[in-house]
Amino acid sequence: MVSALWFAWALLHIVPGGLMITQALQGDISSINMLFPETDPEGLMRDYREETSAILVTFGQHGFNLFWFGWVALIGAILILRRRSKTALVVSAVVIGFADLGALFATVMIGRIDVFGVLIFSGTVLGIGLSVALIRSMNSR
User: Fold this and answer.
1) What is the 3-state secondary structure (H, E, C) of 73-92?
2) Which of 10, 22, 43, 65 is the most exposed place for a label (fewest CB within 10 A)?
3) How confident is the model at residue 34 (pLDDT cuts 50, 70, 90)?
4) CA dihedral of residues 39, 43, 48, 52 (deg, nearest 10)
5) DSSP 1-54
């Protein structure tokens, strides 16, 4: 079950991360809508023309982070499923836990917690708990 959670988490981060990187490299700031749907990208570019490159760098970096976090989760999910790897359990739980903890802090700071974010964070907490339980059961054998 934990590998299925990490696999789903991976896809929910690899795909948007890749899209954000691609758009940032093309100079398209419409990827801002992935995080802030109410923001008008054209209005942002018009009102903050000098800051457009900073916006592109910030969202490109965020996309890169989503992308590599997702790949760690995907590789971990495969290794957990196929090899029952304790190392993959620990690495996946730590990387994903810190990634979502950072996202939680960021959303709390700006006062923007939505249902989708709560569901992802809840899945992460469940996955970490299942990882710990699985590691304990592997150690007791």
Assistant:
1) HHHHHHHHHHHCCHHHHHHH
2) 43
3) confident
4) 70
5) -HHHHHHHHHHHHHHHHHHHHHHHHTT-GGGHHHH-TT--HHHHHHHTGGGHHH
**Tokens in use for 99?**
């990634």
- DSSP structural state of residue 93: H
Asked whether the beta carbons of 27 and 18 are under 8 A apart, the reply is no
* Residues 6 or more apart in contact with residue 48 via CB below 8 angstroms: 55
Query: How far apart (Å, rounded) are the C-alpha atoms in residues 75 and 134?
Result: 18
Task: Kindly state the greatest CA–CA separation across the chain.
Answer: 63
Is the pLDDT reported for residue 31 higher than 80?
Answer: no
What integer pLDDT is reported at residue 119 of this predicted model?
A: 84
Predicted model pTM: 0.86
The answer to whether 85 and 134 are in contact (CB under 8 A) is: no
Cα→Cα distances 98→18, 23, 42, 47, 60, Å: 20, 26, 33, 34, 20
- Output the CA–CA distances (angstroms, integers) from residue 108 to 64, 91, 105, 114, 127, in the order listed: 22, 25, 5, 10, 22
